[in-house]
Amino acid sequence: MQIEDIIKGCKEGNRKCQDALVQKFAPGLLALCMRYTSDREMARDALQETFISVFRFMDKFEGKGSFEGWIRRIAVTSSITTNRKYSRLHFDEIKEQDDWQHTSIPDIYQNLAVQDIMALLKQLPDSLYLVFNLCIVEGYSHEETAAILGIAEATSRSALCKARNRLAEIVKKQSDVLAYAS
User: Fold this and answer.
1) Handedness of CA 46, 48, 53, 59 (dihedral sign)
2) Confidence at 173, pLDDT banded by 50, 70, 90
3) Which tops the pLDDT comparison, 70 or 105?
4) Can you state the angle between helices 15-36 and 40-56, rounded to 10 degrees?
5) Cα–Cα dist 160/155, whole Å
6) Which fold has domain 3-86?
7) Class of domain 107-181
8) What's the CA gap between 59 and 180, in Å, rounded?
9) Sequence spans of domains, the chain
10) Which residues contact 104 (CB under 8 A, 6 or more apart)?
11) CB-CB neighbours of 56 under 10 Å
């Protein structure tokens, strides 16, 4: 069944099409939800909220742009909303500054596998992690990130810079440890 047929069937309330949509997108969306929540159970809750929203607002999708992009955006928003229910995000510790300086990232960063990078990202505070993930991984602008998180655009910029600097510190420490061990 083609995605256009699945979307049309979902708009008509066809259960088989809804099941086909879930089967097609659930694995990838669960991985996306896991990046924005603190554990698998919370990610599953976010995934469930994602599909509830998708089916509720399916008639709003007009076929302009990518359906996958539309559903991923809903998953990100659902994940952040679910995360907020269970934990407190603190953006108030991030000073809104225009003069943040980017730290250079050590060469070891280029040699890391995806799972190693994700492990590094998980060491960031939730607020920095979310901004980094939204801006760098998902490609949202600071304006979009600020709207999703309910923060000022300047706070998004500052948080991204702070996240990059913090990651550079973590990577440098790891490269120093590896160099010392050699």
Assistant:
1) positive
2) confident
3) 70
4) 140
5) 8
6) Rna Polymerase Sigma Factor; Chain: A (1.10.1740)
7) mainly alpha
8) 59
9) 3-86, 107-181
10) 168
11) 10
Nearest CA-CA partner of 57 in 85, 77, 37, 42:
77
Measure the CA–CA gap between 19 and 47, rounded to whole angstroms: 14
Other beta carbons less than 10 A from residue 18's beta carbon: 17
Task: Tokens for 76, please give them.
Answer: 């990100």
Under 8 Å CB-to-CB from 137, ≥6 apart: which residues? 35
Kindly report the number of other CB atoms within 10 A of residue 125's CB atom: 16
Q: Between the CA of residue 155 and those of 1, 52, 145, what are the distances in Å?
A: 44, 31, 10
Query: Are the C-beta atoms of residues 23 and 40 closer than 8 Å to each other?
Result: no
Round the average pLDDT of the chain to a whole number and report it.
83
The gap from C-alpha 65 to its chain's centroid, in whole angstroms, comes to 20
